[in-house]
């Protein structure tokens, strides 16, 4: 396999006759933290849904490695998605299940591991995100930041090659958001995971992004791509303005 993990070619996204983004072309490289950024409502989460096959493109294609995901049959899509872990914006934990049960669910569904091995993997994954000892807690007993970390533990339960993360800092205070940023980098380094992070949080973009893609909602297209720090200093005026917000660390 080469260094291109995800390739998007000529992707046009829309709802009925309304176009959200048109002619998206970009590549995500192995081992990087690739940021999809832009103002609220520009289509960032919609793009994530296209990468997961939850929404079909109006035109264009998504490829994983050199295999078309867009045109693949259902069984091939499911096989490809086994390589992908997802942290949704709201964590999407089952509130009626303990953390251990939430993290165990993908292992029970997709692996032949016995219960004892699943318990060991669950303890390891929760430990990796700093939640060792919280196996028997329910999501509603945790803070927002802890829920995000629990969602991340479930996302890495199957040792994915790729992590798709939607608005990791949403509803978190700045110190908690920065700790979650650091955790994403730690998991990337420890597990060799490639991360695609959808966010409009400037501190996250500049703090952990290897490369960034800027979606312009008015132009309905990508207007900049590159290292966040470089885009902040020499990108288009609207991108520089977007990245010029406060990035003060607590």
Automatic annotation (TrEMBL):
GO molecular function, one term: ATP binding
InterPro entries named in the record: AAA+_ATPase, ABC_transporter-like_ATP-bd, ABC_transporter-like_CS, P-loop_NTPase
Chain ranges of the ABC transporter domain: 6-242
Keyword flag Disulfide bond: no
Alphabetized Pfam families for the sequence: ABC_tran
Keywords: ATP-binding, Nucleotide-binding, Transport
Record protein name field: Polyamine ABC transporter ATP-binding protein
Signal peptide residue numbers: none
PANTHER family: PROTEIN TRIGALACTOSYLDIACYLGLYCEROL 3, CHLOROPLASTIC
Domain of life of the organism encoding this protein: Bacteria
């Amino acid at each position: 396999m080469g260094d291109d993990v995800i390739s998007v070619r000529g992707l046009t996204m829309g709802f009925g006759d309304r176009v959200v983004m048109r002619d998206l072309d970009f590549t995500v490289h192995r081992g990087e933290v690739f940021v999809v950024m832009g103002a609220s409502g520009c289509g960032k989460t919609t793009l994530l849904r296209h990468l997961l096959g939850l929404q079909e493109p109006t035109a264009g294609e998504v490829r994983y490695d050199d295999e078309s995901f867009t045109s693949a049959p259902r069984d091939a899509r499911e096989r490809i998605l086994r390589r992908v872990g997802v942290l949704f914006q709201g964590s999407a934990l089952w509130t009626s299940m303990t953390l251990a049960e939430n993290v165990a669910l993908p292992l029970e569904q997709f692996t032949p591991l016995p219960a004892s091995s699943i318990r060991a993997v669950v303890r390891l994954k929760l430990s990796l995100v700093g939640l060792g000892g919280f196996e028997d807690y329910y999501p509603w007993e945790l803070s927002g930041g802890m829920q995000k970390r629990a969602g991340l533990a479930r996302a890495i339960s199957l040792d994915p090659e790729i992590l798709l993360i939607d608005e990791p800092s949403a509803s978190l205070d700045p110190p908690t958001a920065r700790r979650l940023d650091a955790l994403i980098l730690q998991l990337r380094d420890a597990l060799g995971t490639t991360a695609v992070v959808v966010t409009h949080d400037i501190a996250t973009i500049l703090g952990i992004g290897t490369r960034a893609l800027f979606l312009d909602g008015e132009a309905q297209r990508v207007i900049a791509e590159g290292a966040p720090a470089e885009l902040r200093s020499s990108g288009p005026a609207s991108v520089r303005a977007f990245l010029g917000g406060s990035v003060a660390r607590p």
